[in-house]
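Researcher: Structure prediction, please.
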Amino acid sequence: MSTSYMNYTNANVQYFSDVNKNRLNTRDSKNFINRLGRDVLNTLGNVSLLDIYLSEDRVVEPHYHQNAAELVYCISGAAVVSLINPFNNKVINIPIHPGQVANIPQGWWHWEVAAENNTHLLAIFDAPYPEYIFGSDILTKTPIEVLAHTYCLDAEKLKETLAPLKNETVVIGPTNECTSKKSKKKSKQARFTYPSIPSYHQPMQVPHWYPYYY
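Model: Predicted structure follows.
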């Protein structure tokens, strides 16, 4: 569909873009996110996308998009897309394999965890510039005193707990520093165990496994 704001006779009209050249975030060479928006490809309408690459156990951190719904398509590997239904506060875990999608309504709190190495996801939004509010920003930008007072927490312990975030937006977690520490401490530091995720040719069963976030 043509866009009303675009003069298609203009010499600056764009019909092609290389998503690989537009990086949103990099954790390392195997965990990164590329993006495409109207600022990059000016003939786009109300649509944009994120091209997501993850290793096993890597997480696109909990976040929400206040201005856009999101459709997550699995290209390769496997992932679990999790969201909180704000109407009943229940967590929904949706495992996806290549060719399968998970839909996240606008404004819903959600996250994605890779269940395999070389997981490749495509996130499609119904807005030219999806807005993001990340969990790490909520934790680090909200004053410690406010969190401690509101939830009856020990301010000093809370400050110590949040210190490893270094007041930064994580986007793809865990951080490399955290991953290195876990590899040294091995199984005692395990936060969760993956369920047996059904293959794409089997009936979909949504596991309720995330003690980490319940």
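Model: Residues 8 and 34 are 27 Å apart (CA to CA).
Researcher: Thanks, that helps.
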